[in-house]
Design goal:
By secondary structure, the protein is an alpha/beta fold. The protein contains 13 helices and 18 strands.
């Protein structure tokens, strides 16, 4: 019998990293955690999982790479599973100086292609998938061409995450303040009315081994959902299979799509990493059989809404002021499960507050939003841009 892989999970700040560590630990795998922050959520687990703190990937790539090499050798790591945007930095490291372990992700060129909001739409078009009209904007002159039709468009940087900086049907004065460049391009994308869905998948050599979908109930601004409810995956499967098969994808991959009232599915963007859809898998052994096995696929087994309670209060409480949104928030409080809870583990509010306080400090020091602070040090804004570009 082959020995179980010894796994290093990166992006330990994220609730999905904690969830993945729990699944692997329950299945008997050796697990270690890695990030550059002092108080990552996953490191607060009571499962006594080793945590390694290294320099930030975005600002100190060489030092981070050296530290990662050392940890892989020291711990005998055989597999590295990224959970956040550091996956692109790891792809770059494996390209220039690969450590002695397998990275559960495609090569950098493929990661960058789907992470880029313009190139991802071009990929979908090339596969014959319907897409919203999407145009690249790299100059003020190109931007000016869209001013007249801005009420029907969404503008967002090619390199961005969690809805940061997105402008939905902006007025002309706000639009004219943008400064797109060839190094920091934007896209002008057709606004599509419908239900926004998020898809989470794992593929191995182009074959799906896990698929879940969810809809955000409470969001951090216009971005990431902090309370989310599962959705049926059957209508989405063909779309995901088309992409992972064509790209021969191995690793985690997530999509934001919109489903129109007539059932038409249109892709908006792709994230080559974990998202909250991972939380809908709770059976460690079945999950790992799909992750490492030959012919297994695991089905999501959590059927109730889920939330991070501290974030729910932080971003949901203002909904009490809106009569239409108030019932959504109150229902989330009553019915959503806590992603921090696990049958054999719990991360309390103290650890969550410590993580939040650290991100608040980063936000203050760098004069950025709390959402951007949560990804500081791991953001990928193109190969030539730093985290604060």
């Amino acid at each position: 019998m082959n020995a179980k892989p010894s796994v290093l999970i990166t992006g330990a700040r994220a609730p999905v990293a904690l969830h993945l560590a729990r699944l692997l630990n329950d299945a008997g795998h050796g697990v270690s955690l890695l990030d550059h922050v002092k108080h990552p959520l996953a490191a607060a687990s009571q499962m006594n999982i080793p945590y390694y703190r290294i320099p930030p990937f975005s600002t100190e790539p060489e030092a981070a790479g050296d530290a990662l090499h050392d940890i892989i050798e020291e711990r005998g790591i055989t597999l590295v599973i990224p959970t956040c945007e550091e996956v692109l930095h790891l792809g770059a490291l494996w390209q220039r100086r690969p450590p002695n372990a397998r990275l559960f992700a495609p090569k950098l060129a493929k990661l960058s292609q789907v992470h880029n909001k313009y190139h991802f739409i071009r990929l979908c078009e090339g596969l014959g998938l319907p897409t919203p009209q999407t145009q690249l904007v790299t100059t003020q002159r190109e931007l000016a061409l869209h001013v007249q039709n801005a009420q029907n468009l969404v503008f967002k940087p090619v390199w961005s995450r969690f809805g940061s900086q997105v402008l939905i049907k902006p007025k002309a004065p706000k639009l004219q303040r943008l400064r797109p460049t060839a190094q920091n391009p934007w896209v002008a994308q057709e606004y599509v009315d419908g239900t926004e869905l998020c898809i989470y998948a794992i593929a191995r050599a182009g074959h799906l081994v896990a698929l879940s979908a969810y809809r955000g109930l409470v969001r951090a601004g216009v971005g990431a959902a902090v309370c989310f409810t599962p959705e049926e995956t059957a209508p989405l499967r063909a779309f995901v299979e088309r992409i992972v098969s064509a790209t021969n994808w191995t690793g985690q991959i997530s999509f934001d799509v919109v489903q129109t009232a007539h059932g038409r599915l249109l892709p908006l963007e792709c994230n080559p990493r974990a998202t909250s859809g991972l939380h809908f898998f709770s059976k460690g052994t079945a999950f790992c059989e799909a992750l490492f096995g030959e012919n297994h696929e695991v089905e999501p087994d959590v059927t109730a809404p889920l939330t991070l309670p501290l974030a729910l209060w932080l971003y949901g409480l203002p909904m009490m002021l809106n009569p239409d949104q108030r019932p959504v928030f109150l229902n989330a409080l009553r019915s959503a499960g806590d992603v921090m809870r696990w049958p054999s583990d719990r991360v309390g509010y103290g650890a969550q507050l410590s993580a939040l306080a650290e991100f608040a400090g980063i936000a203050l020091r760098h004069k950025i939003s709390l959402e951007r602070a949560s990804t500081w040090g791991i953001e990928w804004n193109g190969a030539e841009q730093s985290v604060l570009s």
